[in-house]
Amino acid sequence: MYASGKYSSRGPALIPRMKTKHRIYYITLFSVVLLGLIATGMFQFWPHSIESAADWTLDKRSVHDAPLVHLPVSSPIPERGDLSCRMHTCFDVYRCGYNPKNKIKVYIYPLQKFVDELGVPISSTGLSREYNDLLSAISDSDFYTDDVTRACLFIPSTDVLNQNSLRIRETAQALAMLPRWDKGMNHLLFNMLPGGPPDYNTALDVPRDRALLAGGGFSTWTYRQGYDVSIPVYSPLSADVELPERQPGPRRYFILSSQTAIHREYRAELERLKEENGEALLLLDKCSNLSQGAASARKRCCKGQVYDYPHILQESSFCVVLRGARLGQAALSDVLQAGCVPVILADSYILPFSEVLDWKRASVVIPEEKLSEMYTILKNIPHRQVEEMQRQARWFWEAYFSSMKAIGLTTLQIINDRIYPYAARTYEQWNNPPVVKWSSVNSPLFLPLIPPRAPGFTAVVLTYDRVESLFRVITEISKVPSLAKLLVVWNNQNKSPPEGEKKFKCPECTAIDGLSLDQTHMVERSECINKFASVFGTMPLKVVEHRADPVLYKDDFPEKLKSFPNIGSL
Amino acid sequence: MQAKKRYLILLSAGACLLLLSYLGGVQLPAASRSRHDRSRTGYRPDQPWPHFSDPLHLFSPVGHTDTEEYNLHISPRQKRDGTASVYKGKRCRVDSCFDFAPCQRNGFKVYVYPQQKGEKISESYQNILSTIEGSRFYTSDPGQACLFILSLDTLDRDQLSPQYVHNLKTKVQSLPLWNDGRNHLIFNLYSGTWPDYTEDLGFDIGQAMLAKASISTENFRPNFDVSIPLFSKEHARTGGDRGFLKYNAIPPLRKYVLVFKGKRYLTGIGSDTRNALHHVHNAEDVVLLTTCKHGKDWQKHKDARCDKDNAEYDKYDYKEMLHNSTFCLVPRGRRLGSFRFLEALQAACVPVMLSNGWELPFSEIIDWNTAAVIGDERLLLQIPTTVRSIHHDKILSLRQQTQFLWEAYFSSVEKIVLTTLEIIQDRVLEHGSRSSLLWNSHPGGLFALQPVLTPDTWETSPSTTLHWVSIKPYPKFTAVIHAVSPLVSQSQPILKLLVAVAKSQYCAQIIVLWNCDKPLPAKHRWPATSVPVIVIEGENKVMSSRFLPYETIVTDAVLSLDEDTVLSTTEVDFAFTVWQSFPERIVGYPARSHFWDSNKERWGYTSKWTNDYSMVLTGAAIYHRYYHHLYTNYLPTSLKGMVDQLANCEDILMNFLVSAVTKLPPIKVTQKKQYKETMMGQSSRASRWADPDHFAQRQTCMNKFASWFGAMPLVHSQMRLDPILFKDQVSILRKKYRDIERL
Fold it and tell me: Rounded distance, CA B711 to CA B243, Å?
């Protein structure tokens, strides 16, 4: 642009000897180009003046552009959550309706900035990075709908992940102001850090009417089974730290405690275990010489020695996850990521996604009171089971803990499964690592049934044109008492099947005694086997060395008394 | 020069044009596309969640200041005590209303109060009590007990019922061990009465746990109460009928898609859904029939539809519909649960639940989505579309799961009660509890005892139905030789056997179980072998000690042997390779059979060479070591005691047990001719087979065992597994197990 401007301004001086006709031509051309460029530039760089908040510039929006909403002091406050709420009492299933895809539709309210009458915001932090990630993931998913009238579930954009940053009353008022709030019906709130000092309730203190709560740190007394969803407390290290998966097996330490704020009574108990069992235990604490902050979150110390966190978690078979002020601990996520089996000591804690995840396969839960017996309890677990748990722990993290997206979509899937239970994901789908899902073709027949003889069997004979052989088979098989039906599949397009008992002479048939002797046939079949094995990714066939015979087969026993005397005789 | 300038100008003009087309040309189509979008969908006030570019705060500050402050003013012990005192009554949980101490001290023992004179007890409750008294959990010493069961009949708490026990409140309060119901379990089938049918039992249950039918999710205290199915007076005490599914029809469709036949309540609680059923009825493949004829004065309340409905109702037979329908509607009645639920389950008719808020039976451990369709009463009109949309594979799988669940947990009062107790045991001894996988797959939680074998490799194949029996078992076996006679000569069969077994390439070790009264022979008396030989002195020298889960058995496979068994190395090798394909079954040589003796009306036992068999003797058999654990811990003392007292029948009992678990027969493998002859012509004085009483005892045993199991678990088989090429007319050199054929 700069270059063209320079030329056009100097134009007349540079081309003095040009013919006027030409000169005019060039000048016109330049002016047109210049005007065009200026117009394009305007279009490009001042879009807001042309179209306000045009949708093609969505990618560059700021949270500060969110409309401001003033909450009147008298604005209504929702009721506290009703503990007896269940899907059939507090959830409007008609909004979800019948749906061939069996998928709920989820609407997200547009971002608004709520302030009180004095202009003070209801939240000290506003939208957090994590909640933004969560909402983005939902809006990018199949669950999302932008049509509020068709939604089954509503998600407020007000971030209540951390109760500490909220003004309880005003947040509740803000929720009640949502256009579709309707007593919180079909609304879903995500909260990871509930409660506040001094008692730290185990569920979000914000009054919320009938809204569902996806909460981290529920206790059995606040969790409404089948209504709320227990979610993990997201660990920011999940995104920052990469821990490559380690092969399950014995680790350098047997038990590791890496949390920093452990109550002195529990720490004393752990110290005592350490004295009794020595090197098998490693007890870490925060490093006293490091200042608080991000760096200190990544270091742990023991007797002056510094360890990298969370990497050190990979060095232990079991990792202690003790409750703190809250039942839910972000450390659980770190421990799972490291493939360390969590030993959870948090009485009455509802484990994350416990509605669908089988935690018995990935963790050990010990009552807080039994901390002193932890070592004995863990030593009694067979090695193979520990390895299985290590593998399972890592897989749980990858599938359900590793990102806000994973947490959000898992929560929605759980609610989806309740609304369409007949299309719900199965236990295996939730709990088996994908490798397993893949390697076992799920057979719909699994019950050990010995079918009664009464209905008999159907014989299916595949034939091409060896009619004589076919007739021999038919004659033999029709003697079988339990034959119910005989089905001949005529697999030859060029010939029509023989009618009646007419005998055909077929010279080739006798020439080759059985196809299997044919060399090319064997080669083809080998090729088939290799092709199938490569598609299956593994060789599913198994070799055995036995064969089923009748009990008295070839025994020195009167043939008359044998059930199947003819077997084996040619 | 002029030409040069002209080129320069042309070039710059061209560059400008290019720039123009780049800036404008690329942008404009995008803009026009978005305009096009808008014109198609109209004005959208709500955008998808925008991608904000601002740096945002983290939701949680780094550091644990909350916990540090919290820890300063609260002690964990205080907190626990505080919890325990606050959460009582409807908010009871094991953390607040249960005392773990006696359970951890003495294990999971259950005490039943002695029955008081003059107290009437219903037959159903009597069955519950006798099941507990006959189970391995029972203790007669309240000092040992972890759980207490009342001898007062609490099953029927409907005041209008003749079974209703009066003054229960005072009777319970006066029990010296009541202790406000702590560690008590109360069984209940009916509570409340017309018109509101509340779930209150009519007396203060204190901190007791409930095992209750028709319990609602609102009243159900998770991890504390147990939801049990409603069962009738006629429900079998033990064993119980098997499920009705005999074979899998493919495609799995039956005459009807969905059926229901039952009462219609015109008014009051639970009437809404049943009153609306006629909207869905189509008299073809969806047959939902109701009758108004129930109660004394039904005529008074009847509505316009009653007569027509009643006539239609009488046209169909309930049983016929049950057995010929793919799905069975199970709507709530006055109460949430109904008999129909178990009836449908047994009939392999997939239950379609229409009972909002019912905490389904054993919901803590059973994944009901695998065996039932959980409908919503509010969406009754969608039910036909929903069930029709279920894929054939899913129907097949749902149907089989109904059978598995019926047989594993519901077919008898005993199973219902034991399942209830096992669930509570899992809570009490939490760290050893069974995973959902074990509860929901064959053979089920009652046969998967603690300590449970690890579900090792999850590479379970569809044919390996027992998840805890690994598909890739440890590739070696441990031989356990049961020695009862003293070692006097070097030509005794036991020494030959030891040498032959030790030579097997799959043998990891040999355990000699010394159940002989004579002292252990000196070490040098045993032949030198390449595998370790461990001699264990039998505990009390009783028969059951051969099936103890010895810690020294590290392999999955156990080769159980009598001291006089004659086996060659080849036979052992072959049997082990067969077992690897059937790790959940007994694989061995000498086979026996059972039969029903209709003259004597009892089970008979035969050792005749017949065309079929149902037992393989454990004097020469391979099976999974898990069965040692199951034999020792699952079977009641009464049966094991009988075996020890007779010094007989232990092999029959083991066969009963394994077939009860697998529902399959054992597997007989080829045996060498000489083996048979030795077995038949046994004349050794020491042999217990020579005793004439021996055979009669075995008949008695069989009948005793069958009555404890409640049914005959043994299954006949006509199959023997031989090596491929066995007795085929090919060169013996091509045969791998040629010694089996050689005489």
Answer: 13
